[in-house]
Amino acid sequence: MNTGLLRPLLRGHTASRCVSRIKHSFSTTPAMEGKPVEKNIREKLAKAFQPVVLEVINESGMHNVPKGSETHFKVVVVSSQFDSQPLIKRHRMVNEVLQNELQNGVHALSIMAKTPSQWEDSEKIIGKSPPCQGGAGL
Q: What CATH number did the domain enclosing 55 receive?
């Protein structure tokens, strides 16, 4: 994989760490142990979309949930399967793949779904999520 083309700029993360995250994003690593929901999300999205970029970011720590929770995620999926699909359809496609997780503990899912050409034409910045509005009831 040519990671030179896939360097997202995550606020608060160094470029080298971002490249490392991309290189390892399609396989589970020892760091995935103890993170079953994140692992399932990563594996399902990789299998369903064969993405050129896949980021799964656990944002649960930004919310009023117990430490170590896996309830709030942001996913970045860049796939040619999104070509000619409107944004709402792309989001529905991702939601369908993650239906089980969304019905069983994942409270919030932020989705960035782009085509490879959109990704290449973008600034490759994965923005910070808005602050928690509460009401999770967890």
A: 3.30.300.90
Quote the CA–CA distance of 131 and 49 in Å, as a whole number.
29
Q: Is residue 32 one of the residues assigned to a domain?
A: yes
Neighbours of 88 (CB within 10 A): 9
Number of domains in the chain: 1
pLDDT digits (tens, 9 = 90+) for 22-69: 433 444 455 556 788 999 999 999 999 999 999 998 887 777 676 777
CA distance 5 to 68: 32
* Dist. CA 10–CA 113, nearest whole Å: 16
Task: Domain of residue 94: give its range.
Answer: 3-126
Domain-located, residue 131 = no
Token pair of 77, please?
């999926």
Percent of the chain at pLDDT above 70?
68
- The 10 Å CB-count burial string (b at 16+, else e) for 94-108 is beebbeebbeeebbb
| Higher-confidence position of 83 and 69 | 83
Residues with Cβ within 8 Å of 88's Cβ and at least 6 positions away in sequence, in order, are none
- Read off the DSSP letter of residue 128: P
